[in-house]
Amino acid sequence: MPALETCYLGLKLKNPLIVGSSGLTKTVEGVRRCAAAGAGAVVLKSLFEEEIRLEYQSISEALGGYPHPEALDWLQTDLAAHYGADSYLKLIEESVASVSIPVIASLNCVTPETWVKYASRIEGAGAAAIELNVYRLPLDPAVPSEQIEQSYIETVKAVRAQVSIPVSLKMIPYLTNIPRFSVQAHEGGARGLVLFNRFFHPDLDIVGLEPRGGLLLSRPEEYRLPLRWIGILYGRTGCDLCASTGVHEPGSVIRLLLAGAKAVQVTSAIYLYKHEVLGKMLHGLEEWMDEHGFESIASFRGKVSRFHSGRPEMFERSQYIKAFVDAE
Ligand SMILES: Cc1cc2nc3c(=O)[nH]c(=O)nc-3n(C[C@H](O)[C@H](O)[C@H](O)COP(=O)(O)O)c2cc1C
Question: Using CB atoms within 10 A as the burial measure, which of 188, 247, 273, 301 is most buried?
Fold first, then answer.
């Protein structure tokens, strides 16, 4: 029986499947289900700064819109301690107590002071690591791209300075130079990179003539985006690489590990095919390792990466040409 253990962010995982941050991990019961289905780790649903602010706003409105100044002071002195963060910290504590797999927290804040404050509390609650879900949509044409990318690195640095647990950054794919960014993220203190966050894209209602939204689940072929970048980054950044997007089948798990991922996150596939999909992925991975004589994940991880390709400068180019030749 091949060994499926992997080490991600310095954490020992019994296998490389991590349930991604989502509604699947927003309750202790949800976390237990993921662990029972065989997950190697879970990333909890993100704590969003806006949730806490909204909670605060509704309480303030409930107090009549013009709360007593002392009450307002009390609310404002430590927003995080009183509201959304509290239930999130409870979720961390109870999840850690309920399962034996690593529980990674996920944070999405806007203001620098909030990132830092929540990160410390998350560490105190017992999370094994923190995944930073940083997403800044560039809307101001006056802001240079470099400045936006640097703001991501600054967030990593600020959080890292506050906590001693490992910090990973869930990246966006829309960066000009992903290899440079990955090196800078590592220098800034990121222990891991999650490639990639998958965005909600807006839509329009052509009857009501207004914007409409809705988060769509990924499709199986979408694993190719993280596959490309993990294959390019493997061996060239100090960060552990973790895939997220389009992991639906054993084949994509195997490909992403071959490209150099230390772990892969699964979200949409569980929504689509239920938790049993994790067992199927693990079974498929074991079978494939058996067939190919691989006894451990480490024995084949990164084998089909730019780093091990012999001619790194041709790695991308040859795939590009081959894609066209195969298509004709
Ligand atoms: C219903 C739903 C809720 C999600 N919530 C979060 C979240 O709170 N934080 C986060 O970082 N990602 C969130 N995601 C994104 C997933 O963690 C994941 O990165 C994305 O769905 C791509 O992986 P997949 O193809 O396996 O679904 C959510 C995804 C879904 C489908």
Answer: 247
